[in-house]
């Protein structure tokens, strides 16, 4: 009997990490100054890409392989410790 | 390397820069945690999170049609119940406003009426974004969309007000109904946590700005969403067991113009005091209806 291939569209968990959306940035990228950061975590919480990491104050940063440069982290940071700089 | 990101909704998805729905979806799944199964209607979220053969999800997640996440989730819930596993696993059904208030309303009403233990989340970006910004039942009054364009003679946008989805959910007698906004991320976390601790059908509708469809800069997503709440146009409310239990009070109510002028979809009415008056009346009636202002004793 012929073998039937069951391709029902199952993808590997979190395989989107293969997709480096950082190449989408056209204008600016965030620079995490790590000077006045109070570790409030809000930038990490609201990054649409989920590409910000950090634990304690002045350790927050983003992964430019994925950051699309939306600039929301810079707008929300209560300490203005994230600056958008030209690509 | 992947483990650097402590999220169940991974980077590498293909949402537009600054997408409000991407922010809210991550907050929802990360609050629910790893023991969660998600059924997703068709729409931007489904498309940008699951560009086959890739997926951003770190939990079991299924997509089948535009209208049936509530029905698929009902089946998953029944199966888990049969296996004696339901108490250990959260089930979430989720969709956009079109998938929820229009084509998916029948499946959703069935899910509510049958009493399934499921959290349904509607990401309300107020139009069919994935197919090019067509109006939905949740598009607000006067918004310019591709199917409610500004006419040459009748210079108006969408002619109808928003469908009252929270009240339609409430009328089904379900134990928990809430609205939320991506402008208030911690409030989303609180409501999802609360909902998942309640047995039975739950409905949370999250206002999520869409920079592309609403026409604003991608770094203003949270600010724009916040303005909708601060003007009274998007009241944040909770219904529990048939009663309005909590509302986010407004300390200073902002005039609706502040919200309208933040987005290109309302540009055509900025010079039309009559249209603005009608929208202010919607905000005023929300403020009155839900008691959004603390009454002085
Ligand atoms: C039965 C059916 N009709 C139409 C479509 C095309 N379609 C795909 S997504 C979509 C709009 C989704 O809008 P919404 O639910 O608001 O989600 P959004 O994309 O705005 O997040 C439409 C019309 C479809 N997939 N299936
Ligand atoms: S610019 Fe946008 S995508 Fe990049 S780190 Fe900041 S919030 Fe995330
Ligand atoms: S928002 Fe600013 S202060 Fe808060 S953790 Fe991020 S960088 Fe630090
Ligand atoms: S069109 Fe809007 S909802 Fe869709 S991915 Fe872009 S910003 Fe998000
Ligand atoms: Mg929509």
SS-based structural class of chain B? Answer: alpha/beta
Radius of gyration of chain B in whole Å, from Cα?
Answer: 19 Å
Which small-molecule ligands are present, each listed once?
thiamine diphosphate, iron/sulfur cluster, magnesium ion
Task: Characterize the overall form of chain B.
Answer: globular
Q: What CATH architecture of chain B do you see?
A: 3-Layer(aba) Sandwich
Largest interface (CB within 8 Å) is between: A-B, 34 and 41 residues
Oligomer: heterodimer
Q: Any low-confidence stretches of chain B, pLDDT <50, length ≥5?
A: none
SSE order of chain B: HEHEHEHHEHEHEHHEEHH
The major β-sheet of chain B equals: 8 strands, mixed
C-alpha end-to-end distance of chain A: 59 Å
Mean pLDDT of chain B: 97
* Percent helix of chain B: 25-40%
Order of helices and strands of chain A: EHEEHE
**How many domain regions of chain B?**
1
Number of strands of chain B: 8
- Rounded to the nearest angstrom, the distance between the terminal CA atoms of chain B is 57 Å
Spell out the CATH superfamily of chain B.
Answer: Thiamin diphosphate (ThDP)-binding fold, Pyr/PP domains
Trace the largest sheet of chain A across and list its strands. Answer: 1-4
Instruction: Output the structural class of chain A.
Output: alpha+beta
């Amino acid at each position: 009997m012929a073998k039937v291939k069951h391709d029902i569209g199952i993808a590997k968990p979190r395989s989107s990490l293969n997709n480096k959306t950082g190449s989408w940035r056209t204008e600016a990228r965030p620079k995490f100054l790590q000077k006045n950061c109070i570790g409030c975590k809000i930038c990490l919480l609201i990054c649409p890409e989920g590409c910000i990491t950090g634990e304690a104050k002045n350790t927050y940063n983003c992964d430019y392989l994925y950051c699309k440069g939306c600039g929301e982290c810079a707008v929300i940071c209560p300490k203005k410790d994230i600056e958008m700089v030209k690509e | 390397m992947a483990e650097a990101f402590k999220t169940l909704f991974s980077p590498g998805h293909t949402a537009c820069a600054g997408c409000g729905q991407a922010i809210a979806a991550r907050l929802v799944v990360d609050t629910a945690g790893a023991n969660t199964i998600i059924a997703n209607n068709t729409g931007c979220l489904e498309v940008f999170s699951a560009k086959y053969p890739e997926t951003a999800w770190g939990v079991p997640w299924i997509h089948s049609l535009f209208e049936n996440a509530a029905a698929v989730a009902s089946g998953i819930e029944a199966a888990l119940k049969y296996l004696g596993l339901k108490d250990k696993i959260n089930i979430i059904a989720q969709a956009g406003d079109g998938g929820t208030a229009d084509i998916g309303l029948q499946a959703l009403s069935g899910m509510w009426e049958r009493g399934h233990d499921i959290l349904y989340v509607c990401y309300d970006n107020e139009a069919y974004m994935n197919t090019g910004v067509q109006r939905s039942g949740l598009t607000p009054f006067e918004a310019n969309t591709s199917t409610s364009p500004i006419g040459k003679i009748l210079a108006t946008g969408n002619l109808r007000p928003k469908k009252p989805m929270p009240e339609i959910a409430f009328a089904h007698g379900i134990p928990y109904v809430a609205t939320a906004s991506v402008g208030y991320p911690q409030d989303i976390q609180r409501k999802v946590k609360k909902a998942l601790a309640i047995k039975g059908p739950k409905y949370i509708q999250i206002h999520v700005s869409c920079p592309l469809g609403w026409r604003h800069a991608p770094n203003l997503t949270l600010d724009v969403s916040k303005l909708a709440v601060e003007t009274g146009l998007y009241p944040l409310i909770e219904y529990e067991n048939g009663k309005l239990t909590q509302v986010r009070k407004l300390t200073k109510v902002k005039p609706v113009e502040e919200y309208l002028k933040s987005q290109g979809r309302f540009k055509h009415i900025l010079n039309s005091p009559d249209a603005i008056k009608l929208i202010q009346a919607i905000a005023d009636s929300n403020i009155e209806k839900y008691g959004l202002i603390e009454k002085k004793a």
